[in-house]
Write a structure and sequence with these properties.
single chain, 287 residues, alpha+beta, Nucleotidyltransferase, domain 5, 2 domains, 6-stranded mixed sheet, 3-stranded antiparallel sheet, 21% strand
């Protein structure tokens, strides 16, 4: 029987290969039957303040923890041979593949379903379908941004969607929603590019190009959020009514929080670039 495993990663900084925690939840016979959570020491102990604010993990918490390959060794066979679930799966699958490559390991092929896309079809709401929002609507109790808890909530959302639609299993749910299971191919058999030395400014900070995002308003209107370089520093401008009057609107706040529920343009990586740019521009204590 094919394994069904919900997966969630937390990262130390903007890099996809900076996993600092992983959570997994196994589904069998319509229920969560196993849960695991591990801390991971990333390749470099560089933690972005924004990431720490999200998950609360500090460099001291992972300094003596094992590296990614050791942590994931026991779990990779189930992930590679089964169906992986993740909420905003593009992010978590990107972390999985990038972290394997960063340690010189060739990523196997993975098949996955995104529970964010499932929730948008089965449990739509004006407030969006972020993990915490969907879980709250469904009465799923969990501690958000703990990797193990997030994986559990992801699994429970998938099970709730099966019950709601009457699908016999997740493969039937995929067919009923016309949401194909995605398979990412085996990774390249080559060494990853060299990492920048610890402490050096990442390319995402040095880049000067403008970042633009298309976002959805409460009534379905489409707005544009643009990062502008002004004399006073980086500034986010939104074309919604609040943004036109110079108010920091909910669309800007959501992007700075890393919430991509209402992101229409699909440039998820640019959200991390945006957050890093804004964090780098914050005044430092004592400056």
């Amino acid at each position: 029987m094919q394994k069904i495993v919900a997966l969630d990663f937390e990262t130390a900084n903007e890099r996809r290969d900076s996993a600092c925690a992983v959570g997994l939840a196994w589904i069998e016979d319509g229920a969560v039957v196993r849960r695991e959570s591990r801390l991971i020491r990333p390749p470099e102990l560089r933690f972005s303040p924004g990431n720490i604010r999200v998950h609360g993990i500090l460099p001291a918490d992972v300094r003596t923890q094992p590296l990614f390959p050791e942590v994931m060794a026991a779990f990779l066979p189930d992930l590679a041979d089964g169906l992986v679930l993740a909420h905003n799966a593009g992010f978590d699958m990107g972390v999985l593949r990038a972290s394997l490559q960063a340690h010189g390991l060739r990523p196997p092929a993975f098949s996955y379903l995104c529970t964010l896309q499932i929730a948008r079809r089965v449990f739509p709401a004006e407030e969006g379908c972020g993990l915490g929002k969907v879980a709250a609507r469904l009465g799923i109790r969990f501690a958000h941004h703990d990797a193990g808890e997030d994986a559990y909530a992801c699994a429970e959302i998938a099970l709730a969607a099966m019950r709601q639609t009457g699908a016999p299993d997740l493969f039937g749910l995929s067919r009923a929603l016309r949401l194909p299971i995605t398979t990412v191919p085996e990774g390249p058999d080559r060494a990853p590019p060299p990492r920048a030395p610890s402490g050096s400014p990442p390319d995402r900070v040095r880049t000067a190009r403008l970042l633009t995002f298309a976002v959805k308003g409460r009534r379905g209107d489409r707005y544009s959020v643009t990062l502008e370089d002004r004399a006073t520093g980086p500034h986010l401008r939104c074309t919604c009514m609040a943004g036109r009057y110079g108010t920091r609107c909910r669309h800007v706040a959501a992007l700075l929080d890393g919430d991509i529920t209402d992101l229409l343009s699909g440039n998820h990586d640019d959200v991390e670039r945006l957050r890093l740019r804004m964090v780098a521009a914050e005044p430092r204590a004592g400056a």
